[in-house]
Amino acid sequence: MAGNITFTMIKPDAVEANNIGPILNMINKAGFKIVAMKYMKLSGAQAGQFYAVHKERPFYGELTEYMSNGPIVAAVLSKDNAVADYRKLIGATDPSKAEEGTIRKTFAKSIAANAVHGSDSDENAEIEANFFFSQLERF
Ligand code: CMP
């Protein structure tokens, strides 16, 4: 299965705006299978741990506070070429630079409140999936 999964979160802004359903629909229509999913709220410490790679960035505090501010949907998605194909589907981190038809162009409000997260490599996809899910929760 290596190389065939990616990890995503539907972020608090998209949950608050009732966009869980439309985003999952776009994910399924693009050919991704949902192999794990949960609806939960991260603590500040959990958000900090998840985004530890960005610890030195100026936006780290804003990012972890934002991500622990409301519920999120965490999911593992499977498809051939999952990481690259999902990054194409979600579009650029900054929604003002995202292509038409992408999830972020359609739903994101700002670079911080950018609707969804997507893994940036196969290695990080596994790390991120394992952060949220045990093997018993992945199908
Ligand atoms: P994500 O794909 O979840 O990975 C890291 C997140 O950091 C990114 O989406 C953005 O939400 C956030 N981010 C990146 N750059 C900035 C920035 N300049 N200001 C605020 N948040 C940012």
Question: Any descriptors?
Answer:
139 residues, alpha+beta, Alpha-Beta Plaits, four-stranded antiparallel sheet, binds adenosine-3',5'-cyclic-monophosphate
Please give the radius of gyration in angstroms. Answer: 14 Å
CATH topology: Alpha-Beta Plaits
Strand line-up of the largest beta sheet: 2-3-1-4
Q: What is the β-strand count?
A: 4
CATH class value? Alpha Beta
Small molecules in complex: adenosine-3',5'-cyclic-monophosphate
Question: Would you tell me the overall average pLDDT?
Answer: 97
Counted by DSSP, the helix tally is 7
Please characterize this protein's 3D structure.
The chain has 139 residues and is an alpha+beta fold. The protein has a single domain (5-134), classed as Alpha-Beta Plaits. It contains seven helices and four strands, in the order βααβααβααβα. It has a four-stranded antiparallel beta sheet. Helix 3 (44-50) crosses helix 4 (60-67). The protein binds adenosine-3',5'-cyclic-monophosphate (CMP). Residues 54, 59, 62-63, 93, 111-112, 114, 117 line the site of adenosine-3',5'-cyclic-monophosphate.
Tell me the layout of helices and strands:
Blueprint: E1 5-10, H1 12-16, H2 20-29, E2 33-40, H3 44-50, H4 60-67, E3 72-78, H5 82-90, H6 103-107, E4 116-118, H7 122-132
Antiparallel strand pairs: 1-3, 1-4, 2-3
Helix pairs in contact: 3-4
Bound molecules: adenosine-3',5'-cyclic-monophosphate.
